[in-house]
Specification:
The complex is a heterodimer.
Chain A: E1 4-6, E2 11-14, E3 19-25, E4 32-38, E5 44-50, E6 55-57, E7 60-65, E8 70-75, E9 84-91, E10 97-99, E11 103-108
Parallel strand pairs in A: 2-11
Antiparallel strand pairs in A: 1-3, 3-8, 4-5, 4-9, 6-7, 7-8, 9-10, 9-11
Chain B: E1 4-7, E2 10-13, E3 19-25, E4 31-37, E5 43-50, E6 53-57, E7 64-70, E8 73-78, E9 87-94, E10 102-104, E11 108-112
Parallel strand pairs in B: 2-11
Antiparallel strand pairs in B: 1-3, 3-8, 4-5, 4-9, 5-6, 7-8, 9-10, 9-11
Classes of the chains: A mainly beta, B mainly beta.
Chain lengths: ~110, ~110
């Protein structure tokens, strides 16, 4: 089983719609979780950290489910500029970050 | 001001050559990293340095040798390049270890022919 699994998509989303996707992780000892955004042929950038209580930043909401070992990201009122790949990142017990392959989101006008 | 800068941005070279990629961060961070992103888009850690000391060395061929002359710089030297080394190499830094936000450089797209 991969350390971090994501459905690569693409997720084709009409502008203004809501899109959500999950990421599962294999190591139950993982302590920290993040969503990074990577635009085509660019570097990854932190979108948000994921806290146990869940967190929200504008149109973006992240949730953590430790029991089922997944984190989720929800994007409301999608904008064209949200088109990117969203990388799920997990800090493993050996102090290394494990990256998922990413969920590719394409927002369609 | 670029926070994490790496050079060159593109590198095309023949098999068997030796090449270096340079990275500098002006954020005052303690920790620097080299990541490899292959054609399948997985980002994998290669090396991590904390205050010039190597703390993570993943299973990477010893043809890859990182060097950190000071806290702000982490260079990557690759000997005897192989076709399979073709990838995008990202330098990154974080304030204090992997639990803090990582800032990535623009990446170096290495193509070995």
């Amino acid at each position: 089983r991969k350390e971090v699994e994501q459905d690569p998509g693409p997720f084709n989303v009409p502008e203004g719609a809501t899109v959500a996707f999950n990421c599962t992780y294999s190591n139950s000892a993982s302590q920290s979780f993040f969503w990074y955004r990577q635009d085509c042929r660019k570097e990854p950038k932190l979108l948000m950290s994921v806290y146990s209580s869940g967190n929200e930043d504008g149109r973006f909401t992240a949730q953590l489910n430790r029991a089922s070992q997944y984190i989720s990201l929800l994007i409301r009122d999608s904008k064209l500029s949200d088109s990117a790949t969203y990388l799920c990142v997990v800090l493993k017990g050996n102090n290394r970050l494990a990256f998922g392959k990413g969920n590719q989101v394409v927002v369609i006008p | 001001d670029t926070a994490v800068s790496q050079t060159p941005k593109y590198l095309v070279t023949q098999m068997g050559n030796d090449k270096s990629i340079k990275c500098e961060q002006n954020l005052g961070h303690d920790t620097m990293y080299w990541y490899k992103q292959d054609s399948k888009k997985f980002l994998k850690i290669m090396f991590s340095y904390n205050n010039k000391e190597l703390i993570i060395n993943e299973t990477v061929p010893n043809r890859f040798s990182p060097k950190s002359p000071d806290k702000a710089h982490l260079n990557l030297h690759i000997n005897s390049l192989e076709l399979g080394d073709s990838a995008v190499y990202f330098c990154a830094s974080s304030l204090r270890g992997p639990n803090t936000e990582a800032f990535f450089g623009q990446g170096t797209r290495l193509t070995v022919v």
